[in-house]
Design brief:
By secondary structure, the chain is mostly beta strands. The protein has 2 helices and 22 strands. The strands form 4 sheets. Strands 11, 12, 15, 16, 18, 19 and 21 form a 7-stranded antiparallel sheet that branches. Strands 2, 4, 5, 7, 8 and 9 form a 6-stranded mixed sheet that branches. Strands 10, 13, 14, 17, 20 and 22 form a 6-stranded antiparallel sheet that branches. The termini are far apart.
């Protein structure tokens, strides 16, 4: 742009000089005739002056235009090319696979009786009832049973039949008669359901959760003998118990016809099937040809007139029960054991009452031993020392 202005100025300058030259008076030539030279000179001067003024004005205008910063032409901004929106794919969840419902399935509804942690007195009889729902696809019949699994059986039968048929979607109350254990403490028994074909199942989604009974024994009944001096039943875990296989814990966790066991009940089942309200030691010898179980009690001082008394029996339904009961003693610090009496018993529906006069031990500090020996197979040798005590009638 500056080059164009300079070139324009140059052209104008040349033209102005040319015009000036044409107006100047002729020098060295002949004067114009007619005596008009002065007038001509004035006109030339005026013309030159006007030309100079016009030139100066033009130069000033051109200079001013050259100094003005040209306004840039607007640049065409291209329109943005529209971007085509890509639709977002919507995730389609997979169709869940249907899980087949098992034939044998149950859910727990409620503890109808004996809520968990119910407090009881040792030996209290009670009926535990569970309410369950058939959530499987198979109907339950009266050939289904509720069966003991583990824990403390609480003197309950091994199994109880269902009281009615139960179609899928229906509920049923299952009841089992029990007795509180004979020792204070917390007790739990677990039970399962058993189908007619032998399939065992429980409750819950996996069908493996057992039904449970949970109680707390807080008190032990006192003896009905008002003259009692020492209660072998109440203090049975004060004794040291052993079998032909070795020492065992007291109390045992239910009846054990293999290794032997010692338990206690304040609701013993008699050979006739009736339930008594006296406390009883329930002793089971260990298996073997010399199967036996024996309890060694702490020493005590005996006085003249003291008597050992008990009622001896097998337990109901133990048809093969055949045992020998034995009472013996040893003076404290001594090494000789003396037998005071032996009694044989089988399941014949009777109770064998025994009494032994202890007057001959007057003033002695003695240790008593209660022993039961199998006369054959110990499989059903559940022998009971009911109301075993030292008394002074």
């Amino acid at each position: 742009m500056k080059n164009i202005v300079l070139k324009s100025l140059l052209v104008i300058t040349v033209l102005a000089l040319a015009l000036t030259a044409c107006s100047l008076p002729f020098v060295g030539g002949n004067p114009t005739p007619g005596g008009s030279q002065p007038q001509t000179n004035v006109e030339a001067t005026v013309s030159a002056r006007l030309t100079q003024i016009a030139f100066d004005t033009l130069v000033a205008q051109m200079t001013q235009q050259a100094m003005v910063t040209p306004t840039p032409l607007p640049t065409n901004t291209p329109w943005p090319t529209p971007t085509q929106a890509v639709p977002t794919a919507t995730a389609i969840p997979p169709t869940p696979t249907a899980i087949p419902v098992p034939c044998h399935q149950a859910s727990f509804i409620d503890d109808v009786t004996i809520k968990d942690k119910t407090s009881m007195t040792a030996g209290d009889p009670f009926i535990k009832t569970w309410r369950i729902k058939n959530t499987g696809t198979c109907s339950w019949t009266k050939d289904y049973r509720i069966v003991f699994l583990n824990g403390n059986a609480m003197n309950a039968p091994a199994s109880v039949a269902f009281p009615a048929n139960v179609n899928p979607g229906n509920t049923v109350d299952l009841s089992v008669p029990m007795n509180a254990p004979g020792t204070t403490g917390d007790y739990t028994g677990s039970w399962m359901l058993k189908a007619a074909n032998g399939t065992t199942f429980g409750v819950g989604a996996g069908g493996n959760v057992p039904l449970t009974v949970v109680i707390k024994v807080i008190t032990v009944p006192v003896s009905k003998d008002t003259h009692i001096i020492y209660d072998f039943v109440k203090n049975y875990c004060s004794a040291q118990w052993r079998t032909n296989a070795g020492f065992i814990n007291c109390p045992s966790n239910g009846f054990d016809f293999q290794n032997g066991s010692i338990t206690r009940s304040y609701a013993p089942v008699l050979e006739s099937g009736t339930v008594d309200d006296e406390g009883a030691l329930q002793t089971v010898p260990a298996t073997g040809g010399d199967g036996m179980i024996q309890g060694q009690y702490p020493s005590m001082i005996i006085h003249s007139g003291d008597v050992f008394a008990a009622s001896l029996l097998c337990s109901n339904k133990m048809t093969s029960c055949s045992v020998t009961f034995e009472l013996s003693y040893m003076e404290k610090g001594g090494s000789t054991k003396t037998v005071l009496g032996t009694w044989n018993k089988t399941l014949d529906g009777t109770i064998l009452p025994v009494t032994v006069d202890l007057s001959s031990l007057d003033g002695k500090d003695v240790i008593f031993f209660l022993k039961v020996m199998s006369q054959g197979n110990s499989k059903e040798d559940l022998a009971q020392w009911m109301a075993a005590r030292v008394t002074h009638p």
